[in-house]
């Protein structure tokens, strides 16, 4: 009896595009394990640990642009998918959560390994199914803009399910889901542009296919732009004349330079940097508009989001001529000046953490795939990474910015034919040590896993004056690399090497040098202001 409902659920997933499956075996979901074991064309990944597995499935969904089901047994196993469901919800990833359950008659009984799994993911799985033997299931009305949950009630598993010779139909064409009201989107953009006062554009998480349309818009507008590394546009030479070079104190700095920002156009995800928190507290006449695939404004005081596939929204759109106050050029020039001084600081303090990130970026080859773990890596990258146009693909998980599941998400995103680099903080690494499980199964031949071991959660160091925020430690990661059979390297300086194969690299910044770096960095600003003022007089 379990076979039929198992087969129907898997076929329903295949009908909405699933070709990869992630399975965490347990007795209750053994019919799924058996069905996928005999399935010849689907690509199945077997995991012993559900939390890492679900983050891996999330990364794989993003890489393949197809829904990937992650399938668990009953009980707490199903709840391990929760963090990945939250991330998928806020980043619009069509992750399929399949939880095996005991028959409905067990609900509320407290019988072994039975829990209340129906609608388990609450807010985070808007579309849910609770199915049992005899039910049919059709997922084609699902919008694929976030997670889907299927809870499958199964009878007592048999030792020998009978799937032999039964194959899924994996050839069904899947049509795209979302559509946009173009006339409405364009008139909202026109309205926004018609009120422009000292505008700033911010580009954050973008899909590869949207980048060219965004470059065209930004160059046509000719307004200052702040570019997160995860937009994939940070190194684009066409945007250089408009790009802000620093990522902190943007609003104050602009005002001090005679360009008080009045309008912000956000393109893509919610930005990584401080500016987005500062925007929460600006005066009432700030006008913010977003063009994004997700519905979130990222601010409590506005919901102004033009939602849809970005390149589609921008196709055929001609932005009006925007006049930009000449002070914008003064501000951009000062930013470039500070950036020149920052390069000198990297040379002066080569073992400081941001300088090591700079040096690391310089050995990452063109066309590499780079994944930035949350916390300092994603911020230090934006500030420090080199800016030659290397056509990197840069990713991060910015849905809920968790430090969990980061290794697994990165491995799900890894692909063959390019060099893959994941860069993580040490606490982030500790969180997902089981994630390495899947490495031998991957088709990527070049994977570098980098941990920046600064001995704790150092993102908090400059914000809070007490060490309890930091979870300080003296752990070293060599045994972890050895446990997973990885080539281990420990770097206090970045050697000029060309990396091949799979490597685990522990980068150890010098604490004193890092402190000196930040002290000198704070002074760069003052120097640049004094010098540009003296040049003006
Ligand atoms: C799951 C989760 N728990 C807690 C946090 C809050 N948090 C943000 S950054 C951080 C510290 C990260 O430390 P580490 O990975 O060592 O990176 P570093 O700050 O040193 O770069 C914590 C605990 C979070 N984002 N996600």
Task: Describe how the helices and strands are arranged.
Elements: H1 2-15, E1 20-24, H2 30-38, E2 43-47, H3 50-64, E3 68-72, H4 76-79, H5 82-91, E4 95-101, E5 127-131, E6 148-153, H6 182-194, E7 199-203, H7 211-221, E8 225-227, H8 250-256, E9 263-267, H9 275-278, E10 287-292, E11 305-307, H10 310-314, H11 327-348, H12 353-363, E12 369-372, H13 376-384, E13 393-395, H14 406-413, E14 420-425, H15 426-431, E15 447-452, H16 478-483, E16 487-491, E17 502-507, H17 511-536
Parallel strand pairs: 1-2, 1-3, 3-4, 4-6, 5-6, 7-8, 7-9, 9-10, 10-11, 12-13, 12-14, 14-15, 15-17, 16-17
Helix pairs in contact: 3-5, 3-14, 11-17, 12-13
Bound molecules: thiamine diphosphate.
Thiamine diphosphate binds at residues 374-376, 401-404, 425-428, 454, 456-459.
What's the number of structural domains? 3
Q: Are there runs of 5+ residues with pLDDT below 50, and where? A: none
Helix content: 25-40%
| Beta-strand percent range | 15-25%
Number of helices: 17
Structural class: alpha/beta
Shape estimate:
globular
Spatial order of strands in the largest sheet? 2-1-3-4-6-5
Reported CATH architecture of the largest domain: 3-Layer(aba) Sandwich
Per CATH, the class of the largest domain reads Alpha Beta
Give the strand tally: 17
Q: Which distinct ligands sit in these coordinates? A: thiamine diphosphate
CATH fold assignment of the largest domain: Rossmann fold
- The residue-averaged pLDDT reads 94
- Major sheet: 6 strands, parallel
N- to C-terminal distance: 86 Å
What gyration radius follows from the Cα positions, in whole Å? 25 Å
In the CATH hierarchy, what is the superfamily of the largest domain? Thiamin diphosphate (ThDP)-binding fold, Pyr/PP domains
